[in-house]
Design a protein that fits this description.
Elements lengths: L1 H10 L2 H59 L3 H30 L13 H11 L7 H12 L4
Helix pairs in contact: 2-4
Length: 152
């Protein structure tokens, strides 16, 4: 393995080396996150692990959806679609949250595994997105993690 790695480093083009470095970084990140999920499961049980995954996924979705929105927002045809889609999505998200809360209050314990849609956080992220997320995820992630890690 060592000889193959050495030969690759000597002869591979810079683009290939960059891709390998990115893949290594991704593998390390996934391994780290899997360890965190396992730790959550050991210390708090399955529900804690599911909530951890849901929280991390929520942050990832928020960051990337704001980036996508900012990119698409430069195209006028997108505005017409957004004017119809955003209110509809907000309406159904509110209904979903209401149903989840009502069923949890009625004692359906399995419903507790389903995450609520963080409407306030989504609105805040999109408002901040115009300035803060032009290439810097860390600002929003830190603010969001501090303000809402226990809000679900």
């Amino acid at each position: 393995m060592d000889e193959a790695t050495h030969k690759f480093d000597e002869h591979a083009p810079p683009v290939a080396k960059h891709l390998v470095d990115q893949a290594k970084g991704l593998i390390q990140k996934v391994t780290n996150e899997a360890g965190k999920v396992a730790s959550e499961a050991q210390s708090g049980g399955a529900r804690a692990a599911v909530q951890y995954v849901a929280t991390e996924s929520k942050h990832l979705v928020l960051i990337n959806s704001v980036k996508l929105w900012n990119g698409l927002n430069h195209y006028p045809p997108f505005h017409a679609l957004a004017e119809m889609a955003v209110p509809t999505a907000a309406h159904w998200s509110e209904k979903y949250n209401h149903v989840i809360k009502a069923m949890t209050q009625k004692g359906y314990c399995f419903i507790g595994y389903l995450p609520l849609i963080p409407l306030d956080e989504i609105a805040k992220a999109f408002k901040q997105g115009q300035g803060n997320l032009k290439g810097n995820d860390a600002t929003y992630v830190e603010q969001s993690s501090e303000s809402s890690s226990d809000s679900d």
